[in-house]
Amino acid sequence: MIQNNKYNGIIMLLGGLIMVVCTGLLIASMLMSNCNWASVVVKIVPWAYIIGATAYVIAQRMDVKAGGTLTLRRLYSIQLISGICFILAGLLMVEHVYHFIQPLVVSNIDSYFTYIQVVHNNWVVLLLVGAILQMYTTHRISYETRK
Hints:
Strand content: under 5%
Radius of gyration: 18 Å
Order of helices and strands: HHHHHH
Number of strands: 0
Distance between the termini: 23 Å
């Protein structure tokens, strides 16, 4: 059981590190789009982010203690919502780079503007919401388990 928590911690750490590095690389490649490396990096980074986010969320869910107080169960549910935000942010990153859904949804100029409002760089909002929820639940869970 202790080794399982150790491996979960390592997987969460690696997944979080992959998420942070990929987010930074995606932003850097968007800012420096005229560089040769940016066109290659922007194609790989969203997929790596999704892998890191999925590993992070799965390891975090495996670390959830069974039972516990009502407050802990609520906080673990909020952590799950945070994880869903991280994964959805990764999917929006992929859509932002590859435009898989755009040909299916856009038929005229109005639908194009709606598509831009929904997809274009809104992965940042989901990432921010997930990070804020993650910070809140992490501190509250550690406080509740010490009580």
